[in-house]
Amino acid sequence: MSNDNILKNIHEINLSYLLLAQEIIKQDKKIASFRLGVCEETLDKISELSLSELIKLGATNQLICLLRLDDKKVINCLTRESRVDELQQVHTGIMLSTQLLKSYHARSIPLLKE
Questions:
Q1: Which UniProt keywords apply (predicted)?
Q2: Are residue 56 and residue 109 in the same domain, yes or no?
Q3: How far is CA 7 from CA 40, 94, 112, in A?
Q4: What is the C-alpha to C-alpha distance for residues 92 and 87, in angstroms, rounded to an integer?
Q5: Which spans in the chain are helix H?
Q6: Closest by alpha carbon to 92, among 105, 77, 103?
Q7: Is the domain of 2 the same as that of 28?
Q8: What is the band of 34 on the pLDDT scale with cuts at 50, 70, 90?
Q9: What is the number of domains present in the chain?
Q10: CATH code of the domain in which 55 resides
Q11: CB-based contacts of 33: which residues, under 8 Å, 6+ apart?
Q12: CB of 112 within 8 A of CB of 41?
């Protein structure tokens, strides 16, 4: 794959991610904060962006979404063969939730208020 194709794909992924983020924020801000791993202030800003602003933001040469699975042991644990697929999904959710809470604590980001 050429460098131009990679950049085009990154732009498309970024725009898709931002559009999805806006949709999740519109549906439920607390769930959006959890799933996107960002604070309320960032959610508010993303939700206010126009389509042209989303396109401009998505046109960066770096992925704007963060890969939360940054530990080889966690990846191996979550991708190993499981007899019960539903339990594997629950386990993945628990692992990601734990990582998100740790990152909130490490960055001292306040969780959304009730």
A1: Activator, Bacterial flagellum biogenesis, Cell projection, Cilium, Cytoplasm, Disulfide bond, DNA-binding, Flagellum, Transcription, Transcription regulation
A2: no
A3: 30, 33, 34
A4: 9
A5: 3-27, 29-36, 40-48, 51-58, 72-79, 85-107
A6: 77
A7: yes
A8: confident
A9: 2
A10: 1.10.4000.10
A11: 39, 40, 43, 111, 112
A12: no
Domain extent at residue 113: 67-114
- In order of 6, 79, 80, 85, the CA distances from 89 in angstroms are 30, 10, 12, 6
DSSP 52-67: HHHHHHHTSSS--S--
**Local structure of residue 108 (DSSP, 8 states):** T
**CA distance linking residue 29 with residue 21, whole number of Å:** 10
pLDDT tens figures, 3-29? 999 999 999 999 999 999 999 999 999
**Can you read off the two tokens belonging to residue 77?**
């644990």
Residues 13 and 35 in one domain: yes
**What type of residue is 41?**
E
